[in-house]
Predict the 3D structure of the following.
Amino acid sequence: MPIAKIISTGSYAPEKVVTNHDLEKIVDTTDKWIIERTGINERRIATEGETTSDLAYKASVTAIERAGINAESIDLILLATFTGDMPMPATACLLQSMLKAKSAAAFDISAACSGFLYGLSIADAYIRAGTFKRILLVGAEVLSKFTDWRDRNTCVLFGDGAGAAIIEASDGDNGLLSVDIHSNGDMASLLYMPGGGSKNPPSRETNDNSMHYIKMKGNETFRFAVRTLEKLVVDALDKAGIDSSELSLLIPHQANMRIISATASRLGLDMSKVMVNLTKYGNTSAASVPIALDEALMEGRIKDNDYVLLEAFGGGITWASALMKW
Ligand code: ACO
């Protein structure tokens, strides 16, 4: 049976940099607090006209060029986001048009920060079933347009960006070994955006009450994330019969340095085996894991036959892991 293999990646982040010192001027916060509590120094923010599909397009073009393929040969486009260009059509369809990927089916995935890994599980199933052979999977977000820039609890955390991967069917042993996805909708109120859907359609009231912005119970989310991710990564390696000492690189969702360190420590991993780039980008939700994967590859931190573990956690609540032999 064929397995799914990432053959190339690409990523893109907007040019505009917003530092912690810039945020000190708009909310009651300090550079010191943000670095100590999150590890973030700066984030990239889209310009007014820049959309999620624009970022997704740039990351995808790089991945397509690096794969040396033609966009018309892509069978399926999966785009993970909760900040799409508009509620309908799917941003994946807009991306398909921009790429001129005429043969592809296209749809969006809504799993917040876990979206890229949910996408990997969908790609994996289609490839194993023989339905599709070549898939473009993208995680892209413009969180800045759904961030309340008066709320210091959230505005210091998020950034914009996109990461893309070309996934193909492979007959060898190298590729995606396992992928696990989980959700707990009972905890939806930890992290949500209340306005704009059928529950609270856009209105003067939703606008006046800032309901179109991301709301988060940070501390509860933090505690649930640490507990859940520690178990998730241990289970992923146990199931595969791989000892953590054999792991070459952990690529975690880039939400908070303290969450990342706790997960690494549970596996007994030295931080040199953990990909961290949240210092530059903050939390880019569905884009976080594919941007980190792309940068790890570009930095030469992943070699053939390396075991690489990806994990993520986000709104839903959702969480997921993926283990690969590169
Ligand atoms: N600057 C200064 N002080 C602040 C700031 C800020 N930017 N933000 C909060 N504070 C204050 C709070 O008001 C609070 O003050 P109080 O004690 O007087 O009430 C104090 O700092 C401590 O607040 P906590 O929320 O307890 O701080 P905590 O250590 O938990 O850190 C944080 C907050 C960074 C949000 C952390 O909880 C976190 O990272 N949570 C997880 C986020 C996450 O992983 N989300 C999932 C993915 S996101 C997605 O799916 C889109």
